[in-house]
Design goal:
Blueprint: H1 12-20, E1 28-32, H2 33-39, E2 45-46, E3 50-55, E4 60-64, E5 67-70, E6 75-79, E7 84-89, E8 96-101, H3 112-116, E9 128-130, H4 133-148, H5 153-181, H6 184-199, H7 206-212, H8 217-228, H9 232-250, H10 255-261, H11 267-278, H12 282-287
Antiparallel strand pairs: 1-8, 2-7, 3-6, 3-8, 4-5, 4-7, 6-9
Helix pairs in contact: 1-2, 4-5, 6-8, 7-8
Amino acid sequence: MNKKMDLDTFDVYAYITTNHTTDADKGYILVDHLTYHDAAIRFPFRTFFYGIGLTYASGSSFEVGSRQYPMQEGALITIGPGIVSQWKYDSPDVPADTILFRPELLTPLVNTSFWASLPFFLPGGNHVTVLDDDNINKVKGLFQVLKQFGDEPDIVASLTYSLLLLVRKIHEGKEGRQNLALSAADQLVQEFHRLVAQEFLVKKEVAYYASRLHITPKYLSEVLLAQTGRSAKTIIEDTVFLEAKSLLRQTSMNVQEICYYLGYADTSYFTKAFRNRVGMTPLAYRRQ
């Protein structure tokens, strides 16, 4: 393929900054639920930024790769660069606070190794966790202070760093408790999701993931069906076609390039599979 794989034609951060805020880009944006709704981004999109959000009610769902999260009060959301996700709203009136920021915002405060200590930003990480009342108040309090100093980049940088430290502490404590409480089946599901998020571009066979988990494909699908209501094959395909939708709407890659990028050798097979899953051809999806 001679044409460069264009993975940054549409940048959600830049789109919101340009069209839905009045400020110049300072390396961060503080947005609420109405900003997302007004932006009308109704397709899966790849992020080129970091994001932390807190919801204050139910009424929407959030899809990240192979995982689907129903939103509820106190849902802490974390996404990092390269993550493909999609918001699905039942109602626009779902209050939430969010900060989107470029890593450069924290350059004076952190080094490269700091980002490696935040696995909830990485593919396959725990992107949504529900907080208890105490942690809801702590995170909400930081958002309130962030909004008070929203025009002060240096202060916002320090507050964002504090928010990151709090989020890391919450995840470390929660994951430690969960690891003790999770059943073997729950742990299997988590590990399967993590592997799929990291390897779905090159590995789409249920047997491969079963071998990585040291179980049979039949047992893997039985556990996933019981725990999630979806088979291993369905979860893998959900991840692939969420990525495909993002590439169709967010980039200028043609269908053949997207097909090859996703690991398919046959464009007609990919087109047929996409139509069967989505209800329209890739080109029709791009044009809608």
